[in-house]
Recover the amino acids of this structure.
């Protein structure tokens, strides 16, 4: 009986613990021996699991994607694509500005799983701006969602145009103050309402690019030679 238990102990718990149990067997201490062996097996298994847990590498926490702001530096003149909402009172301008800024904050609070999310958010903000401009802007650009197209410093701003010698008045859309504010604004950052002689403006600068001067082709008319055999002066 003792030899069988000794073999069993050696197989399940190893030689060191087998010597201890063997001593207990030789001394005649066989009371609850099977229970002690089972307890030692469980303790050894638990110890191995604990060692495996401590030595296994812990997964690194995933960092949230934070897009880097790319600052473009160039010496070339720039032009800016912008939109505006024009209203008659400062109170109305502040209400619409807060609505757009609040929408931007809601988008920014959403989890960033897609690396292109900032660009999708910019498109959503511009579409939201267009909806407000079409419904509430008092400028004629409201039908285009407040689109001012591309503007730049020093561009020609004429509140009236002349056709056939007659001055045809038209509504002023932008002023030099408004253009200065657009060129100084950060993209997709809504500044405080801007006051001009036309009213209060909420502007959205969408993008900028290098301005290319349109080449003016000047054609010089050369005098035509008179037909042969004529005395018509050229």
């Amino acid at each position: 009986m003792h030899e069988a238990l000794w073999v069993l102990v050696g197989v399940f718990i190893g030689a060191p613990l087998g010597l201890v149990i063997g001593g207990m067997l030789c001394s005649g201490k066989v009371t609850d021996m099977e229970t002690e062996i089972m307890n030692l097996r469980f303790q050894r298994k638990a110890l191995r699991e604990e060692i495996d847990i401590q030595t296994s590498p812990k997964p690194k926490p995933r960092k949230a994607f934070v897009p880097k702001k790319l600052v473009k530096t160039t010496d070339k003149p720039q032009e800016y694509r912008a939109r505006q909402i024009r209203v008659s009172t400062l109170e109305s301008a502040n209400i619409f500005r807060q609505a757009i800024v609040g929408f931007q904050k809601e988008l920014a609070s959403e989890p960033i799983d897609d690396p292109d999310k900032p660009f999708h958010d910019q498109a959503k903000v511009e579409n939201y701006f267009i909806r407000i401009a079409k419904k509430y802007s008092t400028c004629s650009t409201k039908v285009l969602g407040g689109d001012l197209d591309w503007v730049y410093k020093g561009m020609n701003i004429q509140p009236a145009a002349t056709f056939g010698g007659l001055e045809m008045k038209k509504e002023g859309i932008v002023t030099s103050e408004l253009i200065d504010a657009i060129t100084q604004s950060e993209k997709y950052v809504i500044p405080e309402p801007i006051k001009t002689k036309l009213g209060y403006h909420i502007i959205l600068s969408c993008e900028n690019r290098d301005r290319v001067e349109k080449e003016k082709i000047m054609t010089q008319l050369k005098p035509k030679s008179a037909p042969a055999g004529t005395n018509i002066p050229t």
